[in-house]
Amino acid sequence: MAEKFDRGLENREIVLDILTEVLENGAFVHQVLGQALYKYQYLDKADRAFITRAAEGTLDYLIQIDFVIDKYASTPLAKMKPFIRTLLRMSVYQILHMDRVPDFAVCSEAVKLAKKRHFGGLGGFVNGILRKISREKASLAFDCPSLRYSVPEWMYKLWEAEYGAGRAQAICAAFLEDRPLWVRCCQSRASVEETRKLLEADGVEAAPFPGMEYMLSLSGVDRLERVRAFREGFIQVQDVSSALVGEIAAPRPGDYVIDVCAAPGGKSLHLADKMGGSGTVEARDLTPRKVALIEENISRCQAANVEAVLQDALVFDPASEEKADIVLADLPCSGLGIMGRKPDIKGRMTRQTQRDLAALQREILSVVWRYVKPGGILIYSTCTIDRLENEDNAAWFLKEFPFIPLDIGERLPAGVEGISAQKGMLQLLPGMNPFDGFFISLFKRQE
User: Which residues, 6 or more positions from 182, have their beta carbon under 8 angstroms from its beta carbon?
Assistant: First the structure.
């Protein structure tokens, strides 16, 4: 039993360090968690699963957790020492939302961690709060949807106004559900059937998405880097919503494609794959680090018709004017559609930041539309679910530049459910499909 609890203490200490980096130092959870899982790869699958769930789950439910702590603590969260604040947050998550973890173990090991990190004098304070929450958790009520689903109130009100109360709550609930790991088969490397056999040989179960059988939902994966199909470039991590961009773009063999904000390169590689290795996809991005990410994926997937290029999307490139058959503008956005995978967005995003991003998107579109040849197409997409960055910007684009909307419905696989207020625009919402929220618009340059 002692050995089990020591392992539990080690795991909780790792979670504590991850959350401290995110909540106190502003790091991104997917980066810090990925680094931690790589550093502690000697841990067994169950331990790694606990670390992942405890770290991401604390962020998923952070608004609710903070409400509960402030209800029972004599000292407001904002005035607590950062270590104690983080320790309480991750412990309350385990008490409220991890049924297989005994509450007494959570309380005991929180006190041990406080002592280990030289906060032993506050052990009684931590223990008292956690034990009281444990005793009274059955009576806690979260009548407000913002607290029930742990989303900022302004976000919930925004979605309620745009989509109605029922759909707003479905969106919020979807963010708290387990999310499948989607990958795309690189069909230039191997057939879907061959790739599935490779996965099965490594003990990975793969279920195809109807209508897009090259998209597989994986289960039984601990570390993707240990899976041969990933190492050798037969699969690329990509959500179905992201892969729909390639379906809607429908590139032809020999096309010249410019992806203006491409990192880490998933959509560029998909378009290149759909062209069967012909033509050229120029995958551009702003920084050497992002270009290096693209190059890493190009190399792993052996995509000979993709080129990574360092280019600021806000700076016009005269050599590209009217050269592209397809311009993909998947632009920086608030990311509200992917909060199920990146829950720290809840604490970072503000309405003003959204407005700033919408303005940046317009600036980029004002430059990159000139790369589309007459008769070519431009796809504007984001991974968010707000009209300000989506339908409003797409409508503005059509008003300002010589493009017409194209019908997306005829290019959309059966079984994908979205909403479309205007021709050429598609909004995918969490809760309607088993994948991320996403916006895609499709425009053709007038000849």
Answer: 209, 215, 216, 217, 218, 237, 238, 239, 240, 243, 435
* Tokens found for residue 428: 């995918």
Residue 144 annotated as catalytic: no
Secondary structure (3-state) at 284? strand
Q: Which of 185, 301, 333, 383 is catalytic?
A: 383
pTM: 0.94
Tokens of 320: 């590209």
Cα dihedral 60, 63, 65, 68, rounded to 10, equals -160
Ordered structural domains, the chain, with CATH: 2-141 (1.10.940.10), 181-237 (3.30.70.1170), 240-445 (3.40.50.150)
Is the bond preceding 343 in cis, omega lying within 30 degrees of 0? no
81 and 119 Cβ atoms separated by less than 8 Å: yes
193, 184 in Cβ contact below 8 A? no
Q: Which residue type sits at 6?
A: D
- Tokens, residue 371: 């790369």
CA distance readout (Å), 414 to 219, 243, 251, 311: 24, 14, 19, 36
Residue 374, amino acid: P
Helices assigned H by DSSP within 284-390:
288-301, 345-348, 351-368
pLDDT in tens, 290-342: 999 999 999 999 999 999 999 999 999 999 999 999 999 999 999 999 999 99
